[in-house]
């Protein structure tokens, strides 16, 4: 009878303790000494023992009867419960040069740079004409050897370095002409006139970037063959006139631009027409 009373009292104590833990949200199990486990108040009890942050333990006797016992060092006040002990408080290490609570401070190179708020436009880059000219020169070397991919890459980089220059766009137009992409070439010429108005006045001879004069002649022949098959391709006619103009054949270019302007005109076409038309003689 005495053993059963002690067991009932221990179970009641465990129920009170588990209820107090659930209400105070301080249920912090530590490492167990066996496969036993307790969840919530009484919870599920299996073989072995499991320790809590406060000093009382639950287990199962060899006969299969669950029991709870409290070490003799814990003093329970009358009408109260044993004090619930939280996790141990760790004192952070003292701060020193380059050290903190979370370890060493990150290197300045690893600290991310502040990002501009969303919606705020990025500051435009300052044009680099000298770098753009150098990149165009590299692109011309690749163009002469027939490496159009590398040439286009250098011309595109030159365009980024100096967005206000017409030269990289005219070079990209030549790449498109060689590839037979006449609409793209026409768009590149239009972009050049918008980016740098008046560039036609000092436009260089485009034949200089070709390896041999016959390469340019073959290119013009290919373009004329395309126009015989597609006489309504306005962009191809415009590109042919631009190629004649940029190679010094201004009279041939003027004839093409005049025919195009009769049907439809635009700012770029008007600029080519003005640049290719010889000035009228002033009457005496």
Structural class: mainly alpha
Number of helices: 9
Through-space gap between termini:
142 Å
The strand line-up of the biggest sheet is 1-2-3
Provide the CATH architecture of the largest domain: Alpha Horseshoe
Q: Explain this structure to me?
A:
The chain is mainly α. The chain folds into 2 domains: 2-69, no CATH class; 129-276, Tetratricopeptide repeat domain (Serine Threonine Protein Phosphatase 5, Tetratricopeptide repeat), CATH 1.25.40.10. The protein has 9 helices and 5 strands. It has helices spanning 2-24, 129-144, 148-161, 167-178, 182-195, 213-229, 234-246, 250-263, 267-276, and strands at residues 49-51, 57-60, 66-69, 99-100, 103-104. Strand 4 and strand 5 form a beta hairpin.
